Amino acid sequence: MDTLYKKKALFVDRDGVIVVEGVVDGHDDIIYQIDSYEKIIYKPHVFEALREIGRRTDYELVMVSNQDGVGTPSYPYETYEGPAERIFATLRGEDIVFDDVNVDFSLPEDNCPGRKPGTAMLTRYMDGSYDLSRSFMIGDRLTDMMLAKALGAKGIWYTESKENVPEDLKDTVAIKTDSWLSIASFLTCGEVKEHRRSSVRRTTAETDISLSVDLDGTGVGHIHTGIGFFDHMLDQVVKHSRCDISGDVKGDTEVDEHHSAEDTALALGSAFLSALGDKRGIERYGFEIVMMDDVAATVAVDFSGRDELIYDVEFTMDYVGSFPTELIRHFFRSFSSAARCNIYISATKGGNSHHTAEAIFKAFARALRKAVRRIPGDDSVSSTKGVL
Ligand SMILES: [Mg+2]
Q1: ∠ CA(57), CA(54), CA(136), 5° rounding?
Q2: Same domain (yes/no): 159, 242
Q3: Helix, strand, or coil here: 39?
């Protein structure tokens, strides 16, 4: 069949790709079937990625799955059907609808022609109406990549395996990745962006800190320092920056809070700097005024590549809880130097010290949120110098 416009298909495996393919504890080679609801665990970002691929591309979505031995006494159809339907229902709820579903129930020893990498289930895609050379198969196994090759399609090998792409599949496998967001970015030609993430481990004689940041998160996470008021302030940073931040700080609090506050700021600043990468397409500047009852705090942030702190704050109390208010200045000075950003902070005078601190941290978080935001469609550096 000759048509001016040929359709494209995105063939997608299920187990190991949409849902986690479970292994029996202690036996990596024994895979369990998803024959009960509690075994359904979705892969990270699969909903976001498939939804965006669906919205931004014109691939037909085609599931291709082997479900070994469905209908046999050890895997009755009824135990397959419920969880399988639940997976589709959940995907539909996320606006992800498969145009076609192909599931082979045979066992490997049956040698069925429909079993991957056999193409017998997919002959309708091979009649010339589909441009298979521009179609993709997403799978976690090499048999999925072999199916892509047999179809004349390209493969997206979704795996955490360190194994190299075999020689005979090098022309087939377009990308190998363990990230659904990378797949979405690839298939949408960069319209879907990968999350900007980083992890920092900082160990000294005074503190031991592990911390991770996702600038494109939703404000989830917690940094545990063991210092109540400081944790409360860091919670404000997580919540109001809408960055996902998790961390564990083991500090010498038996000495005092100083090292923990300073090193947490340094680790957090390093994580932001690293996650921002070359800073292409970001706003760079962020500012916010936040009120908390009797106090108004103003914060401006500039990811300029330089570090300066302008700090116009006076506390009425020396401590909030067990936390010295003088360390708040030090926290921001340390963040500024590690993240290489300029920070301006001022707050109205004479107010409650807890309110003053909290208004500052909230305003800082919201300024961060604006400064690290990506400008849609902009890949430039926000500086006439060309670098930040
Ligand atoms: Mg699989």
Answers
A1: 65
A2: no
A3: helix
| 382 in a structural domain | no
Q: Is 15 a catalytic residue?
A: yes
- The residue from 153, 168, 187 where one domain ends is 187
* Domain region containing 265: 197-372
Q: Express each pLDDT in 115-151 by its tens digit.
A: 999 999 999 999 999 999 999 999 999 999 999 999 9
Active-site annotation holder among 2, 15, 178, 252: 15
Mean pLDDT, the chain, whole residue set: 94
Specify the pLDDT at position 26.
64
State the distance from the centre of ligand 1 to the C-alpha of 17, rounded, in angstroms.
6
| 228 and 161 inside one domain | no
**DSSP type of residue 205:** S
Does this model's pTM top 0.85? Answer: no
Least Cα distance to 247 among 216, 270, 276 occurs for 270
CA 126 / ligand 1 centre spacing (Å): 22
| pLDDT score recorded for residue 55 | 94
Q: Which of 13, 144, 214, 244 is catalytic?
A: 13
Q: Cα(62) to centroid of ligand 1, in Å?
A: 14
CA of 273 to the centre of ligand 1 (A): 37
